[in-house]
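hey so u asked for the seq, here:
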Amino acid sequence: MGRRDELDRLLSAVTGTEGRGLFFSGSAGIGKSRLLREGVAALPTDRYAIWSIAASATTAALPFGGLVQVLPAEQPQGLSPAGILRWALDVLQQQAAGRRIVLAIDDAHLLDQPSAALVHLVARADNATVIGTLRDGEEIPLPIRALWTDDLVDKAELSPMAPAETAGLLAEILGGPVDAGTADRLGRLSAGNPLLLRELIHAASGSEELTRTYGIWKWTGRL
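ran it, structure tokens below
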């Protein structure tokens, strides 16, 4: 809802002639993760070898913990750090079997340093594209920051939803049209943040303050 242009841009970043990657940044709950999932789901798996990674604070302290879903459990012994990175890239290329590699990283700011370095190496490969999300205000690993400073990917800010989009999302959540004043009020309270908007509706649901009259939803409660 309300992200068609952003979704098209994400798909173009993968399927375009340059195969240039894209990272979306924004505040928590703005819709970055959902946008990334929708983009990945729209890619044909016969043309692209897709790996989706959800970085987290629990794996940030482990070497290659951020890519535990991607790499084999056993790593070769005796390799230098650079050798490990080259081995990991070779593994991805072998598993891709001639398809273009797409590495999708949600919350890339939570990657450990070795994983971030591998992501940067993948982005430099001729047959690979890196896409992902970042949360505003978080410290970003240097190899990830270098993706756009080295001109390997584009970086774009995911903005809050516009009032018309907020009203449309409200109608989808509630299953019917919403009073204009209610849509405006909830839109201002949520500041165009889809997650906060949903939580406001869930909190109001079941109360006498959120009612449906003649098919129109209206909220009369206080925050």
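The CA atoms of residues 13 and 191 lie 28 Å apart. The chain is about 40% helix and 20% strand.
lmk if thats what u needed
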